[in-house]
Amino acid sequence: LHAYSTPFRGDTEEERGAVIVLRDITDQEREDRARRDFVANVSHEIRTPLTTVKSYIEALEDGAIESPDHAKRFLSVISGETDRMVRLVTDLLQLSRLDAQRESWAIAPHSLRDLVQKASFRFTMQLQRQKVALSFEVPNNLVVNVDPDKLDQVFDNLISNAIKYTPEDGRISITAARVSGKHVLVQITDTGVGIPKSDLPQIFDRFYRVDKARSRQAGGTGLGLSIARGIIEKHGGQIRIDSEEGQGTAVSFTLPVATGGA
Ligand code: ADP
């Protein structure tokens, strides 16, 4: 609520007072503010790696290039920061395509088990490196109506989060079951650091992170969950997060069962 007060002078004591205008912040204003915040966030997220890249290039120009050791290290920082910017721009493009609703979707029946298996397989190396175990239990006969590339992205975002925020010797499990004639419920559970209760309501917001430093260090853009939510909702599903700080996190989402599917 915005309140404006204007002093009001009347001729008599009784008439002196103030005119107070109360009005709701309109949807338009809210949208404008969200857009400004978004642009500010994007600028900041791009400026940070750019500044790092620039300073390492300057160090190389100032002579570090003469030392092969330094040069190699600095170039690897530059390469890492460039990767981050590419990831960020890729995620931003994905979000803007979801917003614009002009993407063509290749929705068709697919075996959920195959999708989960392939997604898990893509993380084999990373799981080994981080000493985190992943298991999945998905019945053979679940057929869902989805765009497989889009669903791949949901699994990639959610599994990579589970790995990023789960310390060594942790476990990740993926389960799926039919919950109604029309929907399948998929759950990705980890035994990681969890999310504080006070952060849960904003957790799907763009660029929202519990621990910015940890997210950045793990290569996060802060956009993974908003993209996952966008994709699930486009499929007519819903997504939610339950979490207990220090215990772990469970991300659950629904997907449409393919008509005529088993
Ligand atoms: P990021 O790129 O930072 O991981 P996301 O949008 O994917 O961005 O997630 C937003 C934030 O939610 C993360 O920064 C992290 O704080 C929290 N988060 C997401 N998934 C998990 C998880 N499995 N365990 C703990 N925290 C998580």
Your description of this structure?
- Residues 41-259 form the Histidine kinase domain.
- This is histidine kinase.
- The chain contains 7 helices and 9 strands, in the order ββααβααββαββααββ.
- The protein has helices at residues 27-61, 68-100, 112-122, 124-130, 148-164, 212-217, 224-234, and strands at 2-8, 17-23, 108-111, 133-137, 143-146, 171-178, 183-190, 239-244, 248-256.
- A 5-stranded mixed beta sheet has the order 4-6-7-9-8. Strands 1-2 form a two-stranded antiparallel sheet.
- α2 packs parallel to α7 (224-234), α3 packs across α5 and α5 runs antiparallel to α7.
- The structure holds adenosine-5'-diphosphate.
- The site of adenosine-5'-diphosphate (ADP) has 23 residues, from α5 and α7.
- Residues 157, 161-162, 164-165, 190, 192-195, 203, 208-211, 215, 220-225, 249 line the site of adenosine-5'-diphosphate.
